Amino acid sequence: MLRGLYLSATGMVVQELRQDVITNNLANASTGGFKSETATIQSFPEMLLQRLEKGRATPVGCFSPGVMVDRIHTNYAPGPLEETGRPTDLALLDNAAGTPPAFFAVQAGATEAYTRSGSFQVDAGGFLVTPAGYPVQGQYGAVYVGTTNFKVDSSGQVLVNGQVVDQLRIVTFDGPTLPLLQRQGDNLFTAPQGVQPLPAANFQVRQGWLEKANVNVAREMVDMLAVLRTYEANQKAIQAADQTLGKSVNEVGSLR
Amino acid sequence: MIGALWRGASGMQAQQLQVDSLANDLANVNTTGYKQGRAEFTDLVYRPVQEGGMPVDRPQAPAAAPALGAGVKVAAIEKDFSQGALVSTGDPLHLAIQGEGFFAVYGPGGEWFLTRDGNFHRDGDGYLVNAGGYFLEVPFTLPAEAEKITITGEGTVTATINGETQVLGEINLYNVPNPAGLEAVGDNLYRETAASGTAVAGRPGTAGLGTIRSGYLEAANVDLATTMTRMILAQRAYELNARSVRVADEMWGLANNLRR
């Protein structure tokens, strides 16, 4: 019976975490290049219960002590594109469906970070930077675009006054290493130690376009309702367990 | 759960800023040389999930600890310096820039600003001044007897003085490496900052600078349809976040009512 209490409590904790993930998705529904997340849930490893009877242990059956959040899974599906007409806005288009997404590489302090949000600016020195001021990387480090109009062609080549000056560093990750990417805020992902990005092949750069968040609002709302009701159900289960416990503590053996 | 409340609140706050920015764009839809803003959103930091009170023998160590995001913020409201429509006024001293660049103007106190608002006129002493009385940075004055003033696309100012056509001088345009870094100070003026870089003068039509169109004013580049669409989106996003705050509150209520 106490187990039942704890079991339902793990259920409430997990639904709370799911709600945290959903609210983060909804809060970022307008964030450029944002990739939505889903918390996946799994039950704790089952254990075999045994009963002691006449000095002998006989198996009762399997029992799971509750649920927990397994992973927070990132959905890397492309978001819709919006035309802005601004030369510093770049969007990445993944050519083949099902291939791992391509990312712009930016230098965030000492580490290299990756982003899908192509809303860049030209800084005071003439370099292409993110809104947080991190320089966008080309083949030779930071990309210098100067003060004049620059062009980025679909393969990521940067042209200033019609001359190719650099090629954007656009990378991808192979299937198994993609889920290891960590989010850093500021629309950035970083790779953990030992995971190396690969040069991307199946992509197109669109200048003057922006990728929006890939949050599916209707889906998130439905999930949020499901979370609320599951949370409520677990609460009811705890109350029922508590009532049973109350009965056994206060009523069993009372003489009236 | 309290976390969900804050996340929802961060979303509401960000959308509120977006609506403020859009409302300012709408208010300035008839302001000469006004440039609309664009709110840039970024997600906030992520922290690893710590599941307190859970069994320690997890089935397998996860590849990366799941991390929860902390919401959203407005990273910047960037000015969109795209071209506004040119409106013909017929006054040769009304100037518009077709393409990139800014006029440089001096305030009465000697302070220096950049502007796209070319609503100039001649003051009593022959200086070219804008509506706020700021002087256009030119090395000449317009004599009172100057007639038939023409200003070419390259900024050359000629006038007929006592029946004789004279070149009075040239108007230069200025450009900065990062216009988005300029500080808007109101009155259609922008101030150079460390983020924008130093303004460089140039002849109109050269080095990426636009040309001057005399007899035109540049209208605000606010696109009403786009702005209204963004307003609708911002309102719905605000509602979404309000909804998630309400759900988080309901969940909190359920937890509070565990013990009746």
UniProtKB/TrEMBL annotation, chain A:
UniProt keywords, alphabetically: Bacterial flagellum, Cell projection, Cilium, Flagellum
Compartments in which it is found: Bacterial flagellum basal body
Domain named Flagellar basal-body/hook protein C-terminal: residues: 206-249
Keyword Disulfide bond set for record: no
Superkingdom classification of source: Bacteria
Residues annotated as domain Flagellar hook protein FlgE/F/G-like D1: 103-159
Flagellar basal body rod protein N-terminal domain segment(s): 5-35
Main localization (coarse): other
Biological process, per Gene Ontology: bacterial-type flagellum-dependent swarming motility
One GO cellular component term: bacterial-type flagellum basal body
Family of this protein: Belongs to the flagella basal body rod proteins family.
Protein name stated in the entry: Flagellar basal-body rod protein FlgG
Organism: Neomoorella glycerini
Automatic annotation (TrEMBL), chain B:
Domain Flagellar basal-body/hook protein C-terminal: 213-258
Keywords recorded for this protein, A-Z: Bacterial flagellum, Cell projection, Cilium, Flagellum
Boundaries of every Flagellar hook protein FlgE/F/G-like D1 domain copy: 96-159
GO CC list: bacterial-type flagellum basal body, distal rod
Domain Flagellar basal body rod protein N-terminal: 8-35
Top-level division of the source organism's lineage: Bacteria
Pfam families noted in UniProt: Flg_bb_rod (PF00460), Flg_bbr_C (PF06429), LlgE_F_G_D1 (PF22692)
SUPFAM superfamilies attached to this UniProt entry: Flagellar hook protein flgE
Protein's cellular compartments: Bacterial flagellum basal body
A biological-process GO annotation: bacterial-type flagellum-dependent swarming motility
Family of the protein in this entry: Belongs to the flagella basal body rod proteins family.
Protein name: Flagellar basal-body rod protein FlgG
